[in-house]
Design a protein that fits this description.
- The chain has 298 residues and is mainly alpha-helical.
- It is built from eleven helices and two strands; from the N terminus they run ααααββααααααα.
- It has one domain.
- Helix 2 crosses helix 8 and helix 2 packs across helix 9.
- The longest helix is centred in the first third of the chain and has 32 residues.
Length: 298
Amino acid sequence: MDFSSTISASGLIQQFLIGLSRSTILFIVSSGLSLVLGVLRIPNVAHGSLYMLGAFLCYSIATLVGAGSTGFWVGLALAPFCVAFVSLVVERALFSRLYDREHLMLLLFTFALMLLCRDAVKMIWGSEYRSLAPPEALQGSLSAFGMMFPKYNLFLLSLGPVVAIGLWFLTHKTKIGKIARAAAVDRDMVGAVGINVSWVFASVFVIGCFLAGLGGALVAPTQNINQGMDHTLIMEAFLIVIIGGLGNVWGALLGALIFGLTDSMGILVWPQFSIVFPYAVVVIALIFRPKGLLKATW
């Protein structure tokens, strides 16, 4: 099929930009999941629910504060910390008692948390769809090279490298990051030298959940906020972690770029079957690199 007559250069570039913006959200959420999975060895199925909770909290805080753009920025600043606080309570009250259990039990436990979170969201916010407008400074588009680029998408693109560099610095250059990497390899030895491994795990879990909440808050102005927004996201996040390399920040970024861009380009080229493109790429990547595109760091 010849697509040259139906796809313009401007449409291709704009769709590419949309794909990059979605890749940023996927990376932020997936990097948090990779961190938790790499250190705690917990397949946290509830990670997507925390992403959804971040979106709803950002909406509620922005609506409560009001005052134009101020509400959004306050919501963006507070929602991830609210999600992190909830995750800390859950980790200290429940997760910390289950680290020595089998992985299947941990998986079932996170699945139960996902269901509880979904019911809690329904009780608090109802089942109606919500929407949140971006701040005035990020509304509209910028004109460049004869094309229009949405300001909010450009804002998202600027955050991706910042988060990637920040996570790399945290895991490789800070004391807590080095201890977490050591605990991922041999938690018993880390505990034997007098380090409280339990609080190391709690810190890693909270940071990972903070990133899930941040991703939810950032995505709020780009789509409807609803109860089902966690389903597809968590499946995509797990695939990105797998193809990128467990615990590898740059692998998560590469996986998110591959997934987001193939999905976006698929919509442009063959919209009826666009959902197939990113999963086909994942299958091909796993055939040739079953351990991930980049080396696992944990």
